[in-house]
């Protein structure tokens, strides 16, 4: 499974009412997908667990779109 597929699946599972098809690279987690601050924290924790990486608070604040998450995880792999 690719990074993109895993990320899309995690986002769709964590944000209520979002399907995998809604999770496109340019989508903003908050504005387009409707994530709130608690959901963002849950997403970060899931990404850390699935990809076995650590995302500090400064890095997490920069992850505003799905593409940002793809790029960040790819840079850590």
Automatic annotation (TrEMBL):
Pathway(s) per entry: Lipid metabolism; fatty acid biosynthesis
Q: Which residues carry this modification: O-(pantetheine 4'-phosphoryl)serine?
A: 37
* Post-translational modification note: 4'-phosphopantetheine is transferred from CoA to a specific serine of apo-ACP by AcpS. This modification is essential for activity because fatty acids are bound in thioester linkage to the sulfhydryl of the prosthetic group. 4'-phosphopantetheine is transferred from CoA to a specific serine of apo-ACP by acpS.
Q: Give the keywords, sorted.
A: Cytoplasm, Fatty acid biosynthesis, Fatty acid metabolism, Lipid biosynthesis, Lipid metabolism, Phosphopantetheine, Phosphoprotein
Q: Name a biological process GO annotation.
A: Kdo2-lipid A biosynthetic process
Superkingdom of the source species: Bacteria
Residue span, Carrier domain: 1-77
GO MF entry, a single one: acyl binding
- Name a single GO cellular component: cytosol
Localization of this protein: Cytoplasm
UniProt similarity note:
Belongs to the acyl carrier protein (ACP) family.
What role does this protein play?
Answer: Carrier of the growing fatty acid chain in fatty acid biosynthesis.
Q: Report the protein name in the record.
A: Acyl carrier protein
Q: Which gene encodes it?
A: acpP
């Amino acid at each position: 499974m690719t990074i993109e597929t895993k990320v899309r699946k995690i986002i769709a599972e964590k944000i209520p009412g979002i399907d995998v098809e809604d999770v496109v690279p340019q989508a903003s987690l908050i504005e387009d997908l409707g994530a709130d601050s608690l959901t963002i924290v849950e997403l970060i924790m899931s990404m850390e667990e699935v990809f076995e990486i650590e995302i500090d608070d400064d890095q997490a604040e920069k992850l505003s779109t799905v593409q940002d998450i793809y790029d960040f995880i790819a840079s850590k792999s």
